[in-house]
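Protein modeling request. Please complete all fields; requests missing the sequence field cannot be processed.
Requester role: graduate student
Desired output: 3D structure, token encoding
Chains: 1
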Amino acid sequence: MAGSETAMVRLRHPEKAHRPDNPVQRKPAWIRVKAPVSREYNDLKALIRGHNLHTVCEEAACPNIGDCWKHRHASFMILGSVCTRACAFCNVATGRPDRLDPHEPENVAHAVADMGLAHVVVTSVDRDDLDDGGAGHFARTIAAIRQVSPATTVEVLTPDFMRKRGAVETVVAARPDVFNHNMETVPRLYPSIRPGARYFTSLQLLARVKELDAGMFTKSGIMVGLGELGEEIGQVMDDLRAAEVDFLTIGQYLQPTPKHAAVDRFVTPEEFESYATRGKAKGFLQVSASPLTRSSYHAGEDFERLKAVRRQSTAA
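Delivered output (316 residues):
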């Protein structure tokens, strides 16, 4: 989900064009956020444009962009801004992929240094058209950040690299501090919500990371409010713990446009608290669950807490 601006034609979710409109529901009071207007937001936007980069914050219409950018937190989106898949929940453009920018890893690294980031999240669009799914580009971006800003910790949020042999191994070998891959929803809803993906492919990717490097932190997230059942959420938690995932995020699904999947319901803050309690009881080192929780929201602070919890558990 990041890359350089290009003159190539982009189509906004052409595969979704046949879907009937689902009017976007009015959000409850606990989800409404203020429009970004701070000076820090505008400064960061100019810096990102100056480095010819994209962020998932903008491309996915994240509701936390005002808060994150005010505090100079951003998630960089590499491999272009056009995805080869068309998930029913996602606001990133779908169509003919961008040509890879060979300078993108260095541009990301210099933006990280200019922002003085202690922790950075690097994510991407799906690139099923590439032989390695973009894994090598991830590795080069991690290496570039380490060279320019060696004190910065790096978190990757990768695609599933489905049918891309050696891709996970390439990214793990680059030694990110956190390897994140989102399950997104429960297995029953994959055909309608994440039709280009497979639940067990994602689960196996996370398990493979731990096989390759047992000490690497792994992380995954799901959305709620798509029609999932409580017992299905519990089963996803159990599956992730079986894959030794350390950190789970759970947030409210918000419908980007009428062409996307409709919100089944808005989950209350009290229910999110119960998810966090269940997750911790199942053995996750950390669970972040709230209506506005997103994979990259407060990622730096969460990483510090994650390290602290591991140290405590090891000492015990």
